[in-house]
């Protein structure tokens, strides 16, 4: 995505045939074509965003239609940032974010590397591996609670079979020490193919000639890997991390179905916390401020990251 | 769909007309309406569907139903009310919603209607009137008709309790007979006794209790211990004064008790269990006892594995500070946003009749009407009827404040965090709860 | 093939192949388990140890499409021979069918909302993408980037103002509301992807057409659209899959009328206790179309999931 913005900014608008054409002028067509999209964006994106910012300074509550809306200034923001529970959810989110990315990058890259060995039938197996990420996280997440059930769950059974532990002796989503990993496992299962596909594209974009040249210089395979493969696919990897980071920062459906944020609040990611504030406690003003904070965080982190990504690409 | 819209339009017209005439409470409308009744998806709801066929035949209205499973029920329905939806004409909403729904004008106030139709709240069990119909509590302002009386009680494996070898072993170990526990402490002994025991070649466990995190489960469970050890929601003299009542010595002891019970005597993986998980654990022969709302009892009796005399029932046992049980159950209300209020009121009128209420009990519902439950034959009508009556006499309910959800969520979190996740101490959990609740009441302008 | 230093040895290929196939099999296990559970009886579904071989039954499929209640004593005595096969199946478990479940409705809501929003997103998105690709649109890059920003917001955050807006407009729990919302969200993907596809079509084609006397609109319609057709089609499938899978907004903004399948499937329960075969049956019916689409999309998969940032 970042790539496209930059590419396009660099490229001048293509020269058009400078002749008067029949029918509507280009300018008119441009407007007719773009206007509906702009209108929808204004209505569904921009206007609500402005409304959210406004609400974040009030004590408005959706379930209290009869009470007055008061202007409370920055109080909602102060309360959120000063609330230790919010920081706990941030930590849970960070744990989830970091570990899913680490696992997915490691496994995804390895898989891409192996698939790039072009064994027979690699296309077919690539497609099979991709399935999980195309499916509905809510539906699949719900089913994983079944797989995670002690004793009767397939996951516990297999772990028990492999390690010799009693399958009913541990509960992936019931224990504080395991639940954060339970969600990392399912997310990794779902989204590793995403990183894999991007890495695969990266690997395939490296021209053979570079390796051939390195071979002539008698560079070892190991050295080729670190001096050619890794630097060449770094921009791709970083892009994958960007996408996964944004996606998992938003994570709601999968985890809410898996653990509901429990046990206690061990897996209460920010999205889940926000949902409770906004749609269970109905503290609309407060949760609007929460939403604005999250939005600024994602946007801020993403822009810094995109800058870094561009630097890497320019090298 | 189109039909429904046409009807809605017609009903709006009718309502406008009625409004001009000075009353919106015309209870006999010639118009056949499509009524939607919203409730939780559970056994009693299916029984209500069957029963409602009589109403359809008599009134000419069509009934449809929207049932939502318990874990999603509050979320979905409160969302529906707050979004100003018109899905539900009738809502059998949970008891704690009444404050919010009344204050925000989401339920129709029923006083005039009751007066007009001669429906008297004195005909219903007092606890259910207070619990399901009144707001503010203990004032004669009614927003619902008690529809389904429910309370937390216990089910146990009578067939196991009666085994001579187990009885002998229990007596030797605890110096008393193995039977229905009189106190919560005794209940824990029994649960410990069964935990991990081999019965008929299967490992069984002590008790299935509520531990669910996502909606209200663990709160509905832990309160059965809290009340009986002296927990109070507020200073009886001084409303909304929590310190020393919510986190009293007794309350701390109660919470520790509940955690011990969870740690010692529940089946593996019972970290997120509510009604259906406990039913499963019990019916599959995993546990000797289960905590659950009384609604499950007809199903237990009818079950091929554990029914037909194999199960017994008892009210929540006493603790050092008395004997109470968590109130469940719901009243039926007319949604203020409905386009079919008249027809909905007709349904309530039909439902409030003595013979309909009697049938309601017979098909597996739970009537709150005194004429039904105080009938001399009632206590022997079902094996669990006596326990049901005893339990209904000792009920207490959670906050029914408009801010109910904001009060429930921190309780779910604090309690689950201590009992299941094992973080911190019971005192810390309850102190934290006082802090959370104080904040809510401050926000509400109540203190 | 001539020897090349970059061509892996046959041994390497073997090892790589085995590892990848091994991973693929493990990753497929949960999905196969969903499909298998759909054909188990409820007793088999919760058997310990988990059953790999079992006697298949369509009980789960019957359960997911019907609502049932416990059989009364009188009904249990009735002869069963003349009942339809599904009623017989249900009666063996001591239940009786009282009606259709909501599953079919929810499934078709998913279809209507999915196809509806895809249609609008593609029509509007193609037009906008063409304009962005071929004309000088002021603030083009900012606009494009902003279009994308909605995808960065957590859906719950988006839902707060949308909930209020829909409430005021009476759009909560309506098909129209959900179509509008998903259209808006899918538009960003549609504009970005189709923009990329149109950029790849050499501008000379259009110029030739314009010289031949086509109007600009005709050139777009007769020259550009056919060229971009496969790209647009795969974009459409991506939009459809997004709308199909979306959960957070659906769970908050829909209820009885316009609820789609993802918020519904996890709430499928049976008569007393969770009926996993029914959940699995519902899930299978819901997931299989997406698997088919995934196979169709193979070529453009990468481009779709990265908003066109990576093109093969």
TrEMBL record, chain A:
- Cite the InterPro entries for this sequence: MalF_N, MetI-like, MetI-like_sf, Sugar_ABC_transporter
Which residues does the UniProt record annotate as the domain ABC transmembrane type-1? 90-305
What Pfam families does the record tag this protein with? BPD_transp_1
Q: Which PROSITE patterns match?
A: ABC_TM1 (PS50928)
GO biological process, any: transmembrane transport
Q: Which residues cross the membrane?
A: 28-51, 96-115, 127-147, 178-203, 224-246, 288-306
Q: What does the record list as coiled-coil region(s)?
A: none
Q: What name has this protein been given in UniProt?
A: Carbohydrate ABC transporter membrane protein 1 (CUT1 family)
Its source organism is Hoeflea halophila
From TrEMBL, chain B:
**Pfam (any one):** SBP_bac_1
Q: What is this protein called?
A: Carbohydrate ABC transporter substrate-binding protein (CUT1 family)
Species this chain originates from? Hoeflea halophila
**PANTHER family of this UniProt entry?**
ABC TRANSPORTER PERIPLASMIC-BINDING PROTEIN YCJN-RELATED (PTHR43649:SF34), ARABINOSE-BINDING PROTEIN-RELATED (PTHR43649)
Does the record's keyword annotation contain Transmembrane helix? Answer: no
Give the signal peptide range.
1-32
Q: Where in the cell is it found?
A: Periplasm
Provide the alphabetized UniProt keywords: Periplasm, Signal, Transport
Please provide one cellular component term from the Gene Ontology annotations of this protein: periplasmic space
What Gene3D superfamilies has UniProt attached to this entry? Periplasmic binding protein-like II (3.40.190.10)
Identify its protein family: Belongs to the bacterial solute-binding protein 1 family.
Q: Which InterPro entries does this UniProt record tie to the protein?
A: Bact_solute-bd_prot1 (IPR050490), SBP (IPR006059)
TrEMBL record, chain C:
Bilayer disposition of the protein: Multi-pass membrane protein
The entry assigns this protein to a family as follows: Belongs to the binding-protein-dependent transport system permease family.
Q: Which InterPro entries match?
A: BP-dep_ABC_trans_perm, MetI-like, MetI-like_sf
Residue spans making up a coiled coil are: none
Which SUPFAM superfamilies is this protein grouped with?
MetI-like
Which intervals hold domain ABC transmembrane type-1? 107-297
The scientific name of the source species is: Hoeflea halophila
Pfam families per record: BPD_transp_1
* Cross-referenced PROSITE patterns: ABC_TM1 (PS50928)
Which positions, given as ranges, span the membrane? 14-36, 111-132, 144-166, 178-198, 219-244, 276-297
**What keywords were assigned to this record?**
Cell membrane, Membrane, Transmembrane, Transmembrane helix, Transport
Please give the GO cellular component terms listed in this UniProt entry: plasma membrane
Protein name per its UniProtKB record: Carbohydrate ABC transporter membrane protein 2 (CUT1 family)
CDD domains reported in the protein's UniProt record: TM_PBP2 (cd06261)
GO biological-process terms attached to the record: transmembrane transport
The places in or outside the cell where this protein is found are: Cell membrane
């Amino acid at each position: 995505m970042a790539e496209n913005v930059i590419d396009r900014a660099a490229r001048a608008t293509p020269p058009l045939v400078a002749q008067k054409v029949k029918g509507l002028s280009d300018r008119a067509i441009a407007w007719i074509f773009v206007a509906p999209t702009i209108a929808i964006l204004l209505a569904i994106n921009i206007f609500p965003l402005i409304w959210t910012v406004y609400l974040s300074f009030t004590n408005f509550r959706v379930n209290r239609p009869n009470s007055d809306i008061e202007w409370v200034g920055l109080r909602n923001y102060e309360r959120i940032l000063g609330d230790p529970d919010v920081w706990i959810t941030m930590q849970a989110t960070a744990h989830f974010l970091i570990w899913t990315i680490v696992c997915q990058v490691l496994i995804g890259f390895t898989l891409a590397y192996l698939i790039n060995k072009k064994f027979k039938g690699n296309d077919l197996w690539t497609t099979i591996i991709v399935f999980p990420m195309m499916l509905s996280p809510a539906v699949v997440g719900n089913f994983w609670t079944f797989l995670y059930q002690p004793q009767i769950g397939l996951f516990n059974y297999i772990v028990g079979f492999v390690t010799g532990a009693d399958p009913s002796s541990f509960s992936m989503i019931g224990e504080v020490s395991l639940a954060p990993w339970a969600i990392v496992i399912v997310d990794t299962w779902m989204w590793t193919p995403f990183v894999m596909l991007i890495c695969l594209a990266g690997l395939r974009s490296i021209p053979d000639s570079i390796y051939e040249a390195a071979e002539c210089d008698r560079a070892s395979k190991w050295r080729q890997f670190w001096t050619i493969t890794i630097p060449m696919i770094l921009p791709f990897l970083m892009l994958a991390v960007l996408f996964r980071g944004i996606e998992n920062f938003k994570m709601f459906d999968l985890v809410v179905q898996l653990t509901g944020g429990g046990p206690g609040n061990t897996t209460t990611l920010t999205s889940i916390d926000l949902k409770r504030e906004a749609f269970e406690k109905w503290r609309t003003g407060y949760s609007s401020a929460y939403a604005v904070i999250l939005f600024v965080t994602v946007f801020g982190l993403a822009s810094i990251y995109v800058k870094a990504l561009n630097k890497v690409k320019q090298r | 769909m189109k039909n429904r819209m046409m009807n809605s339009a017609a009903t709006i017209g009718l309502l406008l007309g009625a409004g001009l005439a000075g009353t919106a409470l015309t209870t006999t409308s010639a118009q056949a309406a499509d009524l939607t009744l919203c409730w939780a998806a559970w056994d009693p709801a299916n029984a209500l569907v069957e029963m409602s066929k009589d109403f359809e035949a008599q009134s000419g209205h069509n009934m449809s139903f929207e049932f939502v499973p318990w874990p999603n029920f509050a979320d979905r329905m409160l969302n529906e009310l707050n979004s100003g939806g018109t899905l539900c004409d009738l809502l059998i909403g949970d008891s704690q919603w009444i404050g919010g729904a009344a204050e925000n004008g989401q339920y129709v106030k029923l006083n005039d209607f009751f007066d007009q139709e001669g429906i008297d709240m004195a005909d219903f069990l007092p606890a259910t009137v207070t619990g399901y119909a009144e707001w503010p509590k203990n004032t004669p302002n009614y927003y619902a008709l008690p529809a389904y009386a429910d309370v937390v009680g216990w089910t146990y494996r009578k067939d196991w309790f009666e085994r001579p070898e187990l009885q002998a072993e229990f007596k030797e170990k605890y110096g008393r007979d193995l039977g229905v526990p009189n106190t919560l402490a005794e209940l824990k002994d029994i649960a410990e006794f069964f935990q991990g025991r081999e019965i008929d070649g299967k490992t069984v466990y002590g008790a299935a209790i509520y531990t669910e995190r996502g909606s209200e489960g663990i709160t509905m469970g832990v309160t059965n211990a809290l009340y009986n050890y002296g927990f109070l929601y507020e200073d009886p003299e001084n409303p909304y004064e929590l310190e020393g009542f919510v986190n009293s010595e007794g309350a701390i002891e109660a919470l520790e008790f509940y955690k011990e019970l969870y740690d010692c005597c529940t089946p593996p993986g019972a970290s997120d269990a509510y009604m259906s998980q406990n039913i499963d654990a019990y019916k599959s022969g995993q546990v000797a006892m289960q905590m659950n709302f009384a609604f499950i009892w007809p199903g237990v009796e009818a079950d091929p594995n554990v029914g037909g005399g194999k199960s017994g029932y008892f009210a929540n046992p006493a603790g050092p500070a008395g004997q109470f049980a968590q109130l469940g159950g719901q009243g039926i209300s007319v949604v203020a946003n409905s386009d079919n209020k008249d027809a909905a009121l007709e349904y309530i009128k039909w439902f409030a009749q003595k013979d309909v209420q009697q049938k309601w009990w017979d098909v597996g519902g739970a009537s709150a009407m005194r004429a039904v439950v105080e009938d001399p034959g009632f206590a022997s009508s079902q094996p669990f009827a006596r326990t049901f009556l005893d339990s209904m006499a000792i009920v207490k309910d959670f906050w029914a404040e408009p801010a109910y959800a904001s009060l429930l969520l921190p309780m779910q979190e604090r309690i689950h965090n201590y009992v299941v996740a094992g973080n911190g101490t019971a005192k810390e959990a309850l102190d934290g709860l006082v802090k959370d609740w104080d904040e809510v009441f401050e926000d509400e302008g109540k203190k | 093939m001539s020897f090349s230093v970059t061509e892996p040895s046959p041994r390497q290929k073997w090892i790589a192949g085995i590892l990848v196939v091994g991973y693929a099999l493990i990753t497929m296990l949960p999905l196969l388990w969903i499909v298998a559970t759909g054909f188990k009886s409820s007793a088999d579904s919760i058997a310990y140890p988990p059953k790999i071989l079992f006697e298949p039954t369509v009980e789960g499929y019957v359960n997911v499409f019907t609502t049932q209640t416990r059989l009364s004593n009188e009904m249990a005595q009735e002869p069963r021979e003349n009942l339809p096969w599904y009623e017989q199946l249900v009666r063996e478990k001591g239940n009786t069918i009282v009606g259709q479940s909501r599953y079919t409705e929810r499934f078709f809501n998913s279809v209507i909302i999915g196809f509806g929003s895809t249609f609008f997103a593609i029509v509007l998105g193609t037009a906008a993408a063409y304009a962005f690709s071929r004309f000088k649109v002021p603030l083009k890059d900012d606009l494009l980037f902003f279009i994308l920003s909605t995808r960065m917001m957590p859906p719950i955050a988006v839902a707060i103002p949308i909930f209020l807006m829909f409430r005021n407009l009476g759009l909560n729990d309506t098909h129209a509301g959900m179509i509008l919302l998903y259209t808006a969200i899918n538009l960003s993907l549609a504009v970005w992807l189709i923009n990329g596809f149109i950029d790849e079509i050499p501008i000379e084609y259009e110029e030739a057409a314009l010289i031949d006397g086509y109007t600009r609109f005709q050139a777009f319609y007769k020259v550009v659209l056919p060229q971009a057709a496969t790209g647009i089609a795969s974009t459409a499938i991506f939009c459809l899959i997004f709308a199909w899978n979306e959960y957070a907004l659906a769970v908050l903004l829909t209820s009885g009328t316009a609820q789609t399948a993802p918020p519904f499937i996890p709430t499928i329960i049976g008569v007393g206790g969770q009926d996993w075969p029914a959940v699995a049956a519902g899930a299978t019916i819901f997931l299989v179309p997406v698997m088919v689409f995934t196979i169709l999309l193979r070529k453009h998969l990468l481009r779709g999931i990265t908003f066109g940032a990576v093109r093969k």
